[in-house]
Write a structure and sequence with these properties.
mainly beta
């Protein structure tokens, strides 16, 4: 093989390997989480609020692919009387196509849509519904719908699984790609806030743990992104004051 041909093959191999290599982030994304109970009375039925926000030093964070939320020991999910809604039914007609008593919570999300060199914010309304159990575990559907600038909907699936101390359970969420415009990256989630139970639910209930450990009720979350980067955050809900 001639020297020129060897050089051409080497350059082709180098170009192929560079094209296949994932784009690495110079710095991992960062996350913040918040949680609260309303009311915050031990053992009482409550509206449980959980929220997160994601940031990236290089601009918009990568598209989110999964999330695991660690919940405090004793946090109760009572699904008695709560109907389930199949994913196909939810995807076809949205929450309105599901039984009214399948609704467990509501919320909203802020996303970023890429359009050329611009990033455009999009607001989405989010509904949390009970899904058919998976593997004997409580399963949830998290349905989001945005209308401006794009009419989009997405369906994330979640399961509540056992966890290790100091946590009692974990919510494992799988988030599908959220396509936007042709040849543009998937949408990125910047923040999400959900309220589960309380007035936002048609049936079922969430109960505050009866015992509060020193330092408050612990929460933690881990986030995984499309580019293989990760982020994590922790917080505590202060123990209820006793009268």
């Amino acid at each position: 093989m001639s020297t020129a041909r060897r050089a051409a093959c080497w350059l082709l191999a180098l170009a192929s390997s560079c094209a296949a290599a994932p784009v690495a982030h110079a710095q991992e994304p960062t996350a913040r989480i918040r949680a609260s109970f309303t009311p915050d009375v031990p053992g009482a039925q409550t509206a449980f609020m959980f929220a997160y926000s994601l940031q990236d030093a290089e601009g918009v964070p990568p598209p989110l692919r999964s999330m695991v939320v660690h919940l405090p020991l004793g946090l109760g999910f009572d699904v008695h009387g709560l109907a389930s809604c199949a994913s196909a039914r939810l995807q076809g007609g949205g929450p309105a196509a599901c039984p009214a008593r399948s609704l467990l919570g509501r919320g909203h999300a802020q996303l970023e849509v890429h359009a050329g060199s611009q990033s455009i914010p999009e607001e989405a309304v989010v509904s949390v519904l009970r899904a058919p159990d998976r593997g004997g575990r409580l399963a949830l559907s998290i349905f989001g719908r945005g209308e401006t600038p794009l009419q989009q909907q997405t369906l994330s699936t979640a399961r509540i699984l056992p966890d290790r101390g100091p946590y009692g359970a974990k919510l494992s969420v799988s988030i599908p790609p959220i396509p936007t415009l042709v040849y543009e990256p998937d949408a990125s989630i910047l923040s999400l806030s959900l309220t589960i139970g309380g007035p936002s639910a048609r049936a079922g209930a969430v109960t505050v743990p009866r015992r509060c450990p020193a330092g408050g009720f612990p929460f933690a979350a881990e986030f995984s992104f499309a580019d293989q980067s990760r982020a994590g955050a922790t917080t505590h809900v202060p123990c209820p004051r006793r009268g």
